[in-house]
Protein 1
Amino acid sequence: MHRQRFFVAFLATAAMLLLASCSNGPVRRISEPSASIQQLTVRADGSWSVDLRLQNYSSIPMRFGAISLAVTLGEQPAGTLTGNAGISIGPESADVVTLEHAPTSAGRIAIADALGGNRAVGYALQGTLQAAPEDRSSSRSYDIKHTSALNPVPGLPGVLR
């Protein structure tokens, strides 16, 4: 009889501990997002179509808004990418927004040189990106600093990735 009571008490305690550990729910971790150029396409009029990859490192869905990123190609300023992402990105996921951009003359020359010589060109993004958890109305401005390189895509004239 004593063993049976001990076993019932043990099961009840284990069940309460299990329920208590589940009551907190998932951890809500909000991390700084990142942005990078996935593809840059030079149009016939000299303007650019820029596919900007937005990465959500948070453990919850985030809503992305205003984008303001200064672009540098090599050592040349190429203008500022501006726009409104207007998308939600799931936890620890990424998505792409396309922004139209009228580059500076130095930016046009740097891209033309890379395309003409069939070589990579380094780039840097620096600025801000607005983001907020989907369940909140107020957003926060995150500082973005990213450097990488773009390479001409074989068979696609005027396209770098």
Protein 2
Amino acid sequence: MTQITDQKTLLSEAAREFVSAPKGMLIDGAWCDAQSGRTISVTDPATGLEITTVPAGGSADVDKAVAAARRAFEGEWARVRPVQRERLLLRLADMLEERADEFAELETLDNGKILMMSRHADLNLGIDSLRYMAGWATKIEGTTISPSFAYVPDVQFASYTLREPVGVVGQIIPWNFPLVMAIWKIAPALAAGCTVVLKPAEDTPLTALRLGQLICEAGFPDGVVNIVTGDAEPGQALVDHPDVDKIAFTGSTEVGKIIQQRAAGTMKRLSLELGGKSPVIVLKDADVNMAIEGAAQAVFFNHGQVCTAGSRLFVERPLYDAVIDGLAQAAQSFTVGSGFDPASQMGPLVSATQHQRVQAYLDKGTSEGGRLVAGGGSVDGPGHFMRPAVFADVTEQMTIYREEIFGPILAATPFDDLDEVTRMANDSSYGLGASVWTGNLHLANRFVRSLKAGNVWVNAHNLLDPAVPFGGYKMSGYGRELGHAVQNLYTESKSVTMPL
């Protein structure tokens, strides 16, 4: 890997201008510092160098942001018609599309992901999601009902339901897809008529703040979207705040449990998209080359920092050796380097903390008897780089088999019986994603029905579309983002009955 210098010199003029000065957070349409005056350094994971600083928001800043969101919800935003909300979101999508290259550069600088992936995956999905969610603003509907009320025999009644915005929403997003996660949270909430206080991840706040600038320029009223940066404190303050009606959280299961407990005090609405340990099942009739490529992408996509990463691989024994050999070759061939280098196929992990976490799992996989057939280990030089690793012959008792790693480590296991692999795949506290690779339609449908996961792919993995609901079973959380289902997260149902 070539020596990396300050990557801000690689940015376009627009992106370089954005990071050239300390950033503020967005509250009530204005950019401001934290009331404490404290800041947080934002660093480039490829070099460890500081990019810029952002405010270290606290509970006082959250109080201010929530008050602004409440005023907007009960004031100007409440008078904005659905078609106007749709137009504002479509305008925001157009503005983001015009600046897609700039946003991609900021995402790669802040998160470390490959620039081509930032531009052609994250940005396109974010833009498409804005436009898709904009359409729902004019399509939120209730139902009409003909009740019986047998105990009032002489009067006829009519009933109907209304879908109303839930109110002020606190949204807490992770660092692995910063821009996409911000849009997935903000867009449906605004389409439904809610107002938002967004808490970006401490490690990756830049594209959320740049999106906030576009939101202001697009013409959204002050206070409709507020963005409070910082560490855990503002997130906790949002969860505890008595005037926040709902929390939408994407992140680890451990933090999700804490949020669920803390939200009980105010009975907030919750949606939680949490961790995963997704199985990838390769049957003996599968196309070997397609399965190898698919399994590699399932776990190494975004450097393994994906909640649906296919980190548990089950291969029917007749294909096991061929698939393991192919994955070993794939892992060894990955070019690890700066996301701005066109030759790179995998960038750095997001932070020193994450690098240490993944390294600990790598060490544990070896010490517990996993057979490391390829990769693994840090890359010399600055930054948080790690080579992708493939472990073969992993057993159910091993830590790398059972726990979410959130890094480029694959744990592979052979199987002989379909019922056996179904049991192993479902024997997990998680249930977010799963995939099966086969040319047999009957077997594909069998696994689709038997796998306990909110998202099941056949001969594919990690495919996402704004129209397809996304969420988990078990300790992978509850609630569905995207699709029609997402409107249930940001609306309340009100039943109305009156005599005719």
